[in-house]
Amino acid sequence: xxxxxxxxxxxxxxxxxxxxxxxxxxxxxxxxxxxxxxxxxxxxxxxxxxxxxxxxxxxxxxxxxxxxxxxxxxxxxxxxxxxxxxxxxxxxxxxxxxxxxxxxxxxxxxxxxxxxxxxxxxxxxxxxxxxxxxxxxxxxxxxxxxxxxxxxxxxxxxxxxxxxxxxxxxxxxxxxxxxxxxxxxxxxxxxxxxxxxxxxxxxxxxxxxxxxxxxxxxxxxxxxxxxxxxxxxxxxxxxxxxxxxxxxxxxxxxxxxxxxxxxxxxxxxxxxxxxxxxxxxxxxxxxxxxxxxxxxxxxxxxxxxxxxxxxxxxxxxxxxxxxxxxxxxxxxxxxxxxxxxxxxxxxxxxxxxxxxxxxxxxxx
Length: 364
Description:
By secondary structure, the protein is of the alpha/beta class. It is built from 13 helices and 12 strands. It has 2 domains: about 5-90 and about 140-145 and about 170-245, Type I PLP-dependent aspartate aminotransferase-like (Major domain) (Aspartate Aminotransferase, domain 2, 3-Layer(aba) Sandwich), CATH 3.40.640.10; about 245-364, Aspartate Aminotransferase, domain 1, CATH 3.90.1150.10. It has helices at about 5-10, 55-65, 80-85, 105-115, 125-130, 155-165, 175-180, 215-230, 235-245, 245-265, 295-300, 330-335, 350-364, and strands at about 70-75, 95-100, 120-125, 140-145, 170, 190-195, 210, 270-275, 280-285, 305, 315, 340-345. The strands form 2 sheets. It has a 7-stranded mixed sheet with strand order 1-7-6-5-4-2-3. The termini are far apart.
């Protein structure tokens, strides 16, 4: 497949015509864990499925292309992608990170710091992040936009400063996906995704991704990947590949719905503040009466009160008790993640029904 195809074409063509042996249009699911050697000293390129699997390899080819990278590794979850990405950094590395970040990442970061493996400096704004980078910095960790306050960071600007000091830049691109952002051309050294979210898009696959353009980093990643085994199964690789085919359509539909819901929420008397970047399907909003949050959540009919995000179905989350519960309340409050905030992952249902569902729940 040529590299010159547009993104939508790359997505739809994921796995198509990859099976030369049979001519199967759709990439087959290779369940075999082991592969026969043609002769002594020879290999088909596949030996043991923990190291390399044909279905997963086909998926990884597409993942690399859509992120404008040379290499991609599919993992068993978003958190396994985080852990794998950090495996290339030496013990004692110093990390500058945004304070507003996914609670699961914070939980693992805290564990690493408690054990003396990594040391973190947290920053609230882009300016603070740039000011915190110096000759002692090894890694910059960015979620952009952040979860759940939807703060954007200029990857190119930060990467330039980081590289001037010899630091690596790691970007979580889960919220925007390659439809709205490609961190590698902007200077990121590593990019991760919770592919459970927008990349798969149907709330039926647990997966992660690590991509890079750096062969040395890729070789290190593959060593740790093969050694520790956070592999994505062949079936899940196939399902993720199938989900990718509609990524552009889903992201555009979610964005259209989100923009309309933002207007609705901004004009509703029960809502105090709406946080949205203008693209993507993720909205956070703060209500005026925090005590009414249980009632609001219990009265939704179409929008599901559930963790996760990025599926075709609309989901609403209360970060204080769900996704960010591991972050101490005083820490959350210090940077604006207050207990009056709800996070909405806008799906692709009809906007009329989504508005009506939110309206009756806010007013019930």
